[in-house]
Amino acid sequence: MVFKRRDKRSYVKIARDFVYPKGGFRRAVQYVLHRMRRLPDQPHRIARGVFAGTFVNFPPLYGVQMLSAAGLAWLLRGNILAALLATFLSNPLTTPFIAMGSIKLGHWMLGMDVKLTFEFVVAAFAEAGVQLWYNFCAMFTGDVAHWDKLVDFFWFLFWPYTIGSIIPGILFSFLTYYLTIPAVHAYQKLRASKSKERAEKRSALRARLNAVRLGSKSATSGDDDSPGAP
Q: Distance between CA 147 and CA 155 in Å, rounded?
């Protein structure tokens, strides 16, 4: 195949690159920002897309994050590609902090008095995942499904997570929105200026070449019309 990778990546390497990009998170973020600035659209539409993509990084929308970003960008009449690129700003290192902060804020907003630790949250996610898989298998084996862990997970983690993620999600989304507009506008203006400068240089070069050609033709014509010519 023409586009087949020369060095086929193993599953371990694919998982490692997913957790930590090959060039580092700084390079990955710089690439995403660079791609956003180069999008061929109006700055306010790109900013709306970034708003949508940034917001969906906060609620627990695992598995449908990109679809949610595209849908919200469409509702806001923003750039959908910018929304999809903005979802990559969340990564496995920042997501746990976002989750813990949102859950604690949600518990405070809902008036829940629950001792919340990182180990408790990880264990609750793991137990809910195991029980969800067990219930799925129970549909084919005839075993009795259990819902106690999933119910506790919903009321003590998922629901507070959802409620607590709204305020920081909106705040950070507005922040990226107002930072994106001038950044994209300045980049597009600079790019247009450089494009115009290159066009003027090409035009000047063509004019000089045409002048040289006309001069060469005039010199050749003068030699042909000289008195000693037959």
A: 12
Tell me the C-alpha distance between 199 and 202, whole Å: 5
Question: Contacts by 22-25 with C-beta closer than 8 Å and gap 24+?
Answer: 25/91, 25/93
Question: Higher confidence at residue 212 or residue 134?
Answer: 134
pLDDT-derived band at 106, boundaries 50, 70, 90:
very high
pLDDT class for 119, splitting at 50, 70, 90?
Answer: confident
For 54-65, write each residue's pLDDT tens digit. Answer: 999 999 988 888
Task: State the residue for tokens 């020369």.
Answer: 6
What is the C-alpha R_g of the chain?
A: 30
Measure Cα distances from 83 to 40, 89, 107, 149, 228 in Å. Answer: 14, 10, 29, 34, 77
163: left (phi over 0), alpha (psi -120 to 50) or beta: alpha
Task: State the CB neighbour count (10 A cutoff) for residue 150.
Answer: 17
Q: Is 50 exceeded by the pLDDT of residue 109? A: yes
